């Protein structure tokens, strides 16, 4: 099965993950990614995985939702070369080498991001990629400050729709406001909240 081979190769390929234990890799890279499957499946439109790294959560989601277009967006070229290898096995998968802040706006129905950046920065990078009515799903971890995330969402014409089990859903309620995305790197250096 493609996901089994992908998992083994992520662990075996230098520079994609620090995880070496196969059971831990399955838990963190595969099982944790698939927790978002119901959230993504209920949305419409193409999916983008922002900062896909070795391909999670995008590759598990693409394999599970073969009728949905899934784009893996990744800033590091070397990682993109690894990701490209899986597009021949998953026809709904494509790879874009680039930064979130430099992409065409409002192209996707859903953006997902796992371990991309601090939640306020990840939200600022992801929300402009999603069209009005669409959603962003962030893996935020147990210590995420929802008030800060809510402030950022509001600045970007979105709101926190739900938060459970370390997964936050942001709903885009209007068009991307003028001034966003900010210049490359600014969202990380000077978070909105
Ligand atoms: C810590 S890794 C997480 C990778 C994967 N999502 C995971 O959970 O294993 C973060 C990835 O995001 C990429 N990245 C960081 N900033 C980015 C940006 N602005 N646009 C696109 N990719 C970015 C990095 O190159 C890196 O591969």
Describe the structure.
With 193 residues, this protein is of the alpha/beta class. 34% of the residues lie in helices and 23% in strands. The chain is built from eight helices and seven strands. A seven-stranded mixed beta sheet has the order 3-2-1-4-5-7-6, with helices on both faces. Helix 1 crosses helix 2 (22-34) and helix 6 runs parallel beside helix 7 (146-155). The longest helix has 13 residues, at 22-34. S-adenosylmethionine (SAM) is lined by residues 50-54, 56, 73-76, 79, 99-101, 114-116, 125.
How does the SSE layout of this entry go?
Elements: H1 2-12, H2 22-34, H3 37-41, E1 47-50, H4 58-64, E2 70-74, H5 77-84, E3 93-97, E4 108-114, H6 119-126, E5 130-139, H7 146-155, E6 158-164, E7 167-172, H8 186-189
Parallel strand pairs: 1-2, 1-4, 2-3, 4-5
Antiparallel strand pairs: 5-7, 6-7
Bound molecules: S-adenosylmethionine.
The site of S-adenosylmethionine (SAM) has 18 residues, from strand 2.
